[in-house]
């Protein structure tokens, strides 16, 4: 099954925007293979505009001279991707990524290049041309590269079939398709799904489909999304701002109930490490989130079983970031947890009295330890994962009843705690009280988290 567990990988967007080069992709892949593959990171994705020779940081180019083949299909810019010269496309780069034991992915925009329509290029395998299938009304509002496709015309499906067939020939394992869900283009999504199925049958391969972006995405669409895709975004772009992270609590709480083997709601890329080198937003920087906020981000994504796609340039990211990403608990929890849920969300004040202002929210998530869906035995039989979050700007002591995490019937048993961020041994959380009335007590940093696994004793 494709995407049996939430995918984990690297995407070039947060670091390089539209401008990433082959050399930079290979450098990130090499570091991933050397330092992070053992912790579950195994996918490398080239994001938008790999076919634009005039690509620049901070935006898109109108009327860009996109590199297209004779059928109007996007080709990698050989100046940035030298191995693509001579019509080789991404096949040589994919081969090198695969040789590292990693998967290779690319980004593509919905629709057909405007330049292909201007040139009225033929659609491969048909008597139609780009002008026969174009829909100039349904265009992306933020990217000028493409027109929409008239899905009532059979040539529209033929265009996607030919495009995806070429991707499969190159060895693409992961396809991020943009401008699909905001607004929700049902017919376009289904057309991509059909094209991928055909390419997989023809080439004997698997291609994971990731849909983007996801602003205002309702859970009402989940049955359709499970039918057609393995990943779908549930928010617009997320950056290294605390407000962006805080907003994902409610989204993941809403979507975690719908997470299912092979089909994952995606809370977006992780803007961790060295980002903004030539990105759409912000200057060259190490992630602006505090270390506590970074742990909160990773913990929330894992407890919500979101895919993990880091955006920082790995070779130039700080060592603290690489250690966070190498934590085996990330893969352990995303792959090996079940019945994940937010069980407590309470606004708390610093002092009780007449004031109605709250200092922050105290949020608790829990999940049962489970196998990885492929028969791999859980590392914590009968165990429970717990995450205690504090969104306030000052330190806060918090409490949660043990029974709220393990259940009333098991609350009187012996339990051992292990801190998933600080390593083996006792967690930073401690137990107070007796028997079934025990509570976990934690001192949380501003915007901080305590993440632990509870294991039943004798």
Automatic annotation (TrEMBL):
<dbReference type="Pfam" id="PF16499">
    <property type="entry name" value="Melibiase_2"/>
</dbReference>
<dbReference type="InterPro" id="IPR017853">
    <property type="entry name" value="GH"/>
</dbReference>
<dbReference type="InterPro" id="IPR002241">
    <property type="entry name" value="Glyco_hydro_27"/>
</dbReference>
<comment type="similarity">
    <text>Belongs to the glycosyl hydrolase 27 family.</text>
</comment>
<dbReference type="InterPro" id="IPR013785">
    <property type="entry name" value="Aldolase_TIM"/>
</dbReference>
<keyword id="KW-0326">Glycosidase</keyword>
<protein>
    <submittedName>
        <fullName>Alpha-galactosidase</fullName>
    </submittedName>
</protein>
<keyword id="KW-0378">Hydrolase</keyword>
